[in-house]
Design goal:
This protein is α/β, with parallel strands linked by helices. It has helices at 16-27, 43-52, 60-69, 88-104, 172-183, 205-208, 232-238, 260-272, 281-293, 300-306, and strands spanning 109-120, 148-156, 162-167, 191-196, 245-249. The chain has a five-stranded mixed sheet with strand order 3-2-1-4-5, sandwiched between helices.
């Protein structure tokens, strides 16, 4: 319903879900499309449009009561990018079908989600307890440079096992090393599907040469300036491995489909937010490793926390 259109009935005669949908349609639009000058809706602007529809709310207080009754609240926003991938629906359908196939199969296949994280020497800002009315909790910073550390982790969708690597960077060697760690942890002959985002290094020829021939349910998109064939070094080092791993790319810009993102959120809550180790980077790095090593044997609790577990 457009902002200038009038509903057939006043709110009192609308079902609650109809009134909620009507208001959401307004609130999710850019106010400037409807002649407003601001980029976010104000209560007075919303009230004005409700009155144009013939909704006799009377005052801002009446509008507030209506919004509360319809469970529409003033909430903090969050970053969001809608995936532009033309194969988005097909990839999501494939992932759902493959996960179900692995769950109900004979154990000859495994499915893992992989992702990378960069964290910093300096603590990140988070919530903590402090005296009411006083200053907020401090994130104590070091005078040293804000050194970065890279972590890559892969999460088994059925068991909650976590495989990880940490270092100053995640490059071809680090990825191949992690793939080898994964492959040697599963029985011979088991095919392992690894779902990951579209970071070009994931599809570098020097990485792919260490893996079995790729089925490629969806095309890879390597960096345009990279070679199409693996280097001689990679051929000699890994060319005979043929690790039983198949890479599956997520839809582009669709991080919400990767459960490892929630593992990173747990890591930030437990270790990185407001930590007091800015002057002791080795201990901070060890705490990160210790957190990830909690799940090397698998964890049903972790699966539930990241949205993969079947409720008891």
């Amino acid at each position: 319903m457009d902002g200038g259109a009038s509903p057939l009935f006043p709110p009192a005669n609308l079902r609650a879900d109809q009134a909620q949908e009507t208001l959401l349609h307004l609130l999710r639009r850019d106010p400037r499309q409807l002649g407003e000058t601001s980029t976010r809706w104000t209560l007075s602007q919303v009230l004005s449009h409700c009155q144009q529809w013939g909704w006799h709310l009377g005052s801002l207080s009446g509008l507030c009561h209506l919004l509360d009754r319809l469970h529409l609240h003033f909430k903090r926003g969050r970053d969001h990018v809608h995936s532009p991938d033309p194969l988005y629906e097909a990839k999501v359908h494939w992932l759902d079908a493959m996960l179900e196939q692995v769950r109900t199969g004979d154990g000859h296949q495994a499915l893992l989600y992989l992702d990378e994280l960069t964290y910093y020497r300096q603590p990140s800002i988070g919530y903590g307890y402090e005296l009411a009315g006083s200053d907020r909790p401090y994130a104590e910073r070091s005078y040293r440079s804000n050194t970065t550390t890279r972590v890559v982790a892969a999460l088994d969708a059925l068991t909650g096992r976590v495989f990880s690597h940490q270092g100053s960077k995640v490059d071809v060697d680090a990825l191949v090393g992690l793939y080898q760690q994964i492959a040697t942890s599963y029985p011979a002959g088991q095919r392992i599907w690894v779902v990951q985002d579209n970071w070009p290094v994931h599809f570098h020829p020097d990485v792919l040469v260490a893996l079995e021939e790729q089925v490629r349910p969806f095309p890879f998109r390597p960096a345009p300036n990279w070679p199409l064939e693996p280097s001689e070094r990679a051929r000699k080092k890994w060319g005979k491995w043929r690790l039983p791993i198949q890479i599956v790319p997520l839809p582009t810009y669709a991080s919400w489909l990767n459960p490892v993102e929630k593992l990173w959120r747990l890591l930030k809550q437990d270790v990185l937010h407001l930590h007091r180790l800015a002057d002791d980077l080795p201990t901070l790095r060890q705490l990160v490793l210790s957190f990830l090593q909690r799940f090397v044997g698998g964890s049903l609790d972790l699966l539930r926390a990241v949205g993969l577990g079947i409720p008891p």
